[in-house]
Amino acid sequence: MCEAGKSDHHSAERCVDFPVSVVLPAGGTGERTGLQTPKQFCTFLGRPLISYTIQAFESMPWIQSIVVAVAKENMDLMTDIIQRFKHRKVRAVPGGSTRHRSICNGVLALGEEERPAVGRPKVVIIHDAVRPFVEEDFLCKIAMAAKEQGAAGAIRPLVSTVIATTSEGYLDHSLERAKYRASEMPQGFTYDVISQAYQRCSESDFEFGTECLHLALQYCGTNAKLIEGPPTLWKVTYKRDLAAAESIIKETLSRSACVITGGLAEAVNLADALRKAVGALDMELDIVPDLMGDNARCLLKEWNFIQVSVSHSCLSEVEAILVALEAENRALLHPVVVIWVHFSRTDELPVSERAPTAITELASTAKHRNILIYGIQLKQSKVMLLSYISHLYILGCTHILICIGINVPSSATKRMDRNFKSSVI
């Protein structure tokens, strides 16, 4: 099992052993962005914003289903997004004229789930479609608190002081900032609490209300547990926020990698040294012998893979990675980088110069599927030194590619870097 992935997913699954579903209200018009396209459908890095939010929830095994409530005129667009990016846990339902009406429609849809394998959830998570950065450990806290308390919500400290004004536009009074918090998403409720709250609330609540936690308190007597959330909970509201979201996603893509060792001693030693080298850069490495069984979960969380081989016959291991990535439709969402590190037992020519037909054909085919293969050859007679890390921009995404120096002068390292960047084998 991949070490980081194992810790994150298994700890969450041990805690969340009950059905959890998600409602994403996505019926907004996005007036504050100043764009004709509603912000949830704005595209960057080849995908609409809402697809990133859906992906965040789909990557959590304990989330059983996701309902997206969209304006009727955008139903076809949302259906196309679900199909194009092969979102498997999602279905779209018509939203309402207000936020509460859209959420209510989503909750009702969960109670009328048509798929036999997906029953009514114990807990419903409500989240904004334009908040794509959801951390699993925090969502787990919300789900657990909702199950125990009936309702739970994220909060953040206020950044600015809140003031009240008179009708003439003068200062009336200000609030003591330390006593107040900003209500954020996600919020969680037991299905019974949130469904009853919407059954009992008034037309005025439907038309003008925005706070689900208040409905649970007013109509069900459920006092929500409030949990301070991470700073990543921010919402894409203005046009400039789209650029910020794109930047964060680029950084996220290069934050971690999976090293497949095949269980070989040389490969394991290399992976351990590599982990030490990149640790100072706040980059995480999952080290696994293969991608079989529980280790296959690495396919759901990584965008960068390093396959370490000791013979040409191990090219089949790279082919196995490609097959696994295809099965998970991983490259539909972002470009995937696969680095093949080959240990040479002799002084044979580097892979890039030899360029065997089988390798070049494999890389060429993979590139058309949005999977980029890079190759590095190491001579075992040399002392390996992990000395160079290069950021390579691929299709607009930043991926950290690991370039391994072999005790060569800095000038030679620079030449190797240039060759490495241009030698997609």
From TrEMBL:
Superkingdom: Eukaryota
GO BP of this protein: isoprenoid biosynthetic process; protein O-linked glycosylation via mannose
Metabolic or biological pathway: Protein modification; protein glycosylation
Compartment list: Cytoplasm, Cytosol
Cell membrane keyword on record: no
D-ribitol-5-phosphate cytidylyltransferase C-terminal domain mapped to chain residues: 255-382
Annotated GO MF terms: D-ribitol-5-phosphate cytidylyltransferase activity
GO cellular component: cytosol
Main location: cytoplasm
Transmembrane region(s): 385-408
Catalytic reaction(s) noted: D-ribose 5-phosphate + CTP + H(+) = CDP-D-ribose + diphosphate; D-ribulose 5-phosphate + CTP + H(+) = CDP-D-ribulose + diphosphate; D-ribitol 5-phosphate + CTP + H(+) = CDP-L-ribitol + diphosphate
Enzyme nomenclature, EC number: 2.7.7.40
Similarity field: Belongs to the IspD/TarI cytidylyltransferase family. IspD subfamily.
Pfam families recorded: IspD, ISPD_C
Keywords annotated in UniProt: Cytoplasm, Membrane, Nucleotidyltransferase, Transferase, Transmembrane, Transmembrane helix
Broad EC category: transferase
InterPro entries: IspD/TarI (IPR034683), ISPD_C (IPR040635), ISPD_synthase_CS (IPR018294), Nucleotide-diphossugar_trans (IPR029044)
Known role: Cytidylyltransferase required for protein O-linked mannosylation. Catalyzes the formation of CDP-ribitol nucleotide sugar from D-ribitol 5-phosphate. CDP-ribitol is a substrate of FKTN during the biosynthesis of the phosphorylated O-mannosyl trisaccharide (N-acetylgalactosamine-beta-3-N-acetylglucosamine-beta-4-(phosphate-6-)mannose), a carbohydrate structure present in alpha-dystroglycan (DAG1), which is required for binding laminin G-like domain-containing extracellular proteins with high affinity.
Oligomeric form and interacting partners: Homodimer.
Descriptive protein name: D-ribitol-5-phosphate cytidylyltransferase
Keyword Transmembrane: yes
